[in-house]
Design brief:
Belongs to the diacylglycerol acyltransferase family. The chain is α/β, with parallel strands linked by helices and 335 residues long. Helices cover 40% and strands 14% of the residues. It has one domain.
Length: 335
């Protein structure tokens, strides 16, 4: 493979953008393990005056990710996140006004490999979220396993993510007077294994828990499609039935998260590496689907609302795909 090196005269701003994205990828892949290693070293070398207070505090703080988290406006305003959002760049597009007297569930699609659009739009202060939705607070819900990693959980929560558990969702969506948005990447880890460029496979048909929560909480549903999310990385070919996909599926069921074998470009060359491609991300927020609170919804009510949600999601994709370079014959595949 012939390496294509980056020019030496690239502006400093673009270098900073690449560095910001690279540190984000490394944080996603390695920071949790590093934090666990630091804690183990503190225990191994008996720095009890550091780890005992922290573990004691951790015991009492364990439920915080299910109770709205602990975001830091200072961390969300770090300049590194501005460079991160400018790298792709990331855009948030509003198609309809939202009534701030209600709470909402944003169903985010697709998962992509690392959900860059969801992070950039809802976990930093450099997206247009507050300009478009000034009366709302958004909570990105992620796998609970990330909050079980000591030290790393504090860094993660500082940007605003909370657990995707039922308790966490109900906590956010039960806010009296409205104004809260739960952002859920509905395809989950399983969908990331199908995050190939030019492919639009969404794992949604069996994902009905969010619909039941919407009904019990009276939260309006809003489909969100992030155009460009699947274009950021390439994956090693892993079609259904292949040995690689079989291993990935089994590991995903055991560990709760997927291990896509992805690659893109490097820091100083464009041929291979873990830095995502510089592709624009346009996250389009659709029209709200009104939901009447039903404390004990029937399976029929859940199914009906789920079908409505999938129809609205498909309409959103079809209406906007041409604006972002997707050929007319491409369509969503629901699994």
């Amino acid at each position: 493979m012939k390496l294509e090196f980056a020019p030496l005269n690239i502006p400093l701003a673009r270098r900073l953008q690449t560095a910001a994205v690279f540190q984000w990828v490394l944080s996603f892949l390695l920071l949790a393990e590093v934090c666990i290693g630091i804690l183990l070293l503190l225990i191994l070398y008996n720095y009890w005056f550091l780890y005992i207070p922290y573990l004691t505090w951790l015991y009492f703080d364990w439920r915080t990710p299910e109770q709205g988290g602990r975001r830091s406006n200072w961390v969300r305003s770090w300049a590194v996140w501005k460079h991160f959002n400018d790298y792709f760049p990331i855009h948030l597009i509003k198609t309809s006004d939202l009534d701030p007297s209600h709470n909402y569930i944003f169903g985010f699609h697709p998962h992509g490999v690392l959900v860059a659009g969801a992070f950039g739009n809802f976990c930093t202060n450099y997206s247009d979220f507050k300009k478009l939705y000034p009366d709302f607070t958004a909570y990105l819900h992620v796998l609970p396993i990330w909050f079980r990693c000591p030290l790393f959980r504090e860094y993660l929560m500082s940007s605003g993510p909370v657990s995707v558990s039922k308790k966490s969702l109900c906590y956010v969506l039960s806010k009296e007077g409205g104004g809260n948005i739960s952002v859920i990447v509905l395809g989950g880890a399983e969908e990331s294994l199908d995050a190939h460029p030019g492919k639009f496979t969404l794992f949604i048909r069996r994902r009905k828990g969010f619909v039941k929560i919407a009904l019990t909480q009276g939260a309006y549903l809003v489909p969100v499609f992030s155009f460009g999310e699947n274009e950021l990385f390439k994956q090693v070919s892993n079609p259904e039935g292949s040995l690689l996909r079989t291993v990935q599926d089994k590991l995903q069921k055991i560990m709760g998260f997927a291990l896509p074998l992805f690659h893109a470009r490097g820091i100083f060359q464009y041929s291979f590496g873990l830095v995502p491609y510089r592709k624009p991300i346009h996250t389009v927020v659709g029209h709200p689907i009104p939901v009447h609170q039903t404390l004990n919804p029937t399976p029929e009510q859940v199914e009906e609302l789920h079908q409505t949600y999938m129809e609205e999601l498909r309409k959103l994709f079809e209406e906007h795909k041409g604006k972002y370079g997707i050929p007319e014959h491409h369509t969503l595949v629901f699994r």
